[in-house]
Amino acid sequence: MNRLACCQIIPPDLLYQIIKEGTSEQKDKAIRTLELSENLRTQRSIIAGIRGGGNLLRVAGHEQKRRIIYDAKHADDIFSLPGEPKRYEEDIQETGDKDVDSCFHNTGLVYDFYKEVFMRNSIDDNGMEMNSSVHFGVDFDNAVWTGNQMVYGDGSDLLFRKGSVASNLTVTAHELTHGVTDHEANLVYKGQPGALNEHMSDVFGIMCDQWVNKHKVDESSWLIGKDMLIEGQALRSLKEPGTAYPSDKQIAHMQDYHTGMRIHYSSGIPNRAFYLVCKEIGNDGYSWEKAGKIWYIALTDKLREYSKFQDAADITLDIAGSLFGKSSKEQDAVYKAWEGVGIIPKESPEITNIISEKRRRIQEIL
Amino acid sequence: MKIYFEQSGGILGIDSNISIDIDYLSPDEASKLQQLVEDAKFFELPEESSESLQHSADYFEYKITIEAKDRKHDVKTTDITMQSNLAPLIRYLRKRALKQKDEQL
Q1: Residues of A in contact with B13 (CB under 8 A)
Q2: Which of A181, A233, A314, B20 would you label with A321, given CA atoms 20 to 30 Å apart?
C-alpha cells in the first residue's frame, strides 16, 4: 500500500513542501494524499450538512480561497500546462518572481471582491481552486482562460509591455470572470452572446479594480489593462469605447454594429451601457453597489447561452425593477443607458416571482 | 515557398498578418523558416482541429497558408487547439507579423 497516500496525519504544509521540493515519486504521492484528504473533507462537510439539517448546496465545497500559481517556463503548448507550481495558498513568503507574486496577490483580490460584494465563493461558487500559469510562451502578448485555468504571457515589448500581463488586476479579474460566465450564463463565444461574454469580463474586471481602490464612478479610469500597451493607454475603455489605443475599433452604439463583427469590438456597446447606468445612478456612488448587483443577477440567473444585446437590455431592466422598484431611479437609469447605445429595453409584463438562491443573497445585502 | 499568416482574437482582439516569400529571405533566415515548417509537419496537419473551444476565451486564432512548388495547404488553429509541433512556427510568424506592424506604425 502507498504509505504516503494512506496516511492522513501529515500536515498539509508538509505535503505542499514535498510537492515543491521532493523527488517526482514523492511529489506524486503527496499530490495523491492531498487529493484524498480534499475528498474526505468534502464528504465530511456533506455528512455534517445532512446531520445538521443544513443546506447541502452550500456546504459541499471549500469555503476558503485556494490559489496555485504555476510557472509555464515559456512553453508554447497549452497541453503542457499548468507547469511547475511556484506558490500555493499557504505560502506567505513571496517567491521573488514578480509575475508569480503579483498574479497570486491579484487573484486573491478578485476572489475577495466576488466573495464580499456578491457572496460568491470562487469561480464556480463552490470554492473551485484558482489555477494560473505565468510565463506562458515566448513574448506572448496575451492572457487566456482555457476552460480550467488562467494563462498569462510575458508580453513582447512590441505590443504589450513585458511583465505587464500577469500583474494587471483588471486582466486577472477579466479572465477569472470568463470562468464565472462558464459556470453561469455559459454565453457562447461568438456573435452577440460572445460579445456579452467579453462584456461581463470587462464589467467585473473594472468593478473589481474600483472596489479594490474604493473608486467612485467619477474617480475610475474605466480602463481595462491600463498602461499595458506600448502604444495606447489601455486595451479597452468602458467609458469611451474605441479610444483606448490609436487603432481601437471598439464601437459604442448599435448604429455601428454589423453581423459578424469581432466580439471584442461589439462588446463596446454593452460596456458603454453599463458605464451609463453607473453614471446615471450617481457619479458619486460605487458601481458595484447597485449597477453591479443588477449585472451579477443577469449573469448568474437570467442570461443564457444564446442571449443577445436586446435580451441583456430587457433582463437588466426587469432586474432593476425587481430589486429597486418599478420606475425607480435605478430602473430609469438602466432604460436610459440602453437607449443611449441604441437599444430600447422592453419591460417584462410581470416581474418574476421565482427568487433564486443568488438573487436572495443579493437582496439580503442590498 | 510562400507563407501567409493571419492572427486574430486575444484579449486585445486585434488582427495582424504577414506574407513571406521565402525566396526573398536571407539564406540563413530561409533555412530557419524551412526547418520550422518541416518540424511542424505542416503539410500533414489537419486543416482544422476538431477539438472543442467551448468554455475557453481570449485565445488567439491563427490561419496559415503555405504554397510550395507542388502543393498548397491551409491550417486553422488556436492557442487552445494547436498541436505542439506547430507552436515554434506560429511563434516565429507572430513575431514577424508584430515587427512588421510596428514598422508600419
Answers
A1: 262-265
A2: A181
B26 Cβ under 8 Å from any chain A Cβ: no
Q: In terms of domains, do A144 and A269 share one?
A: no
Instruction: Please check whether residues A8 and A81 belong to one and the same domain.
Output: no
Considering only CA atoms, give the Rg of chain B.
14
The model's pLDDT over A218-275, given as tens digits with 9 standing for 90+, comes to 999 999 999 999 999 999 999 999 999 999 999 999 999 999 999 999 999 999 999 9
Q: Cα(A115)–Cα(A302) distance, rounded to whole angstroms? A: 20
The residue among A345, A291, A293 whose CA lies nearest residue A117 is A293
Is there a catalytic annotation at residue A175? yes
Domain that holds residue A77: 65-183
Quick check: B5 and B93 in contact, CB under 8 A?
A: yes
Phi, psi (5° rounding) for residue A189? Answer: -95, 50
Using CA atoms, how far apart are residues A208 and A214, in angstroms rounded to an integer?
9
Residues A325 and A273 in one domain: yes
ipTM over 0.85 threshold: yes
Radius of gyration for chain A, computed over Cα atoms and rounded to the nearest angstrom: 22
Could you give the number of structural domains in chain B? 1
- Residue B85, domain extent: 2-104
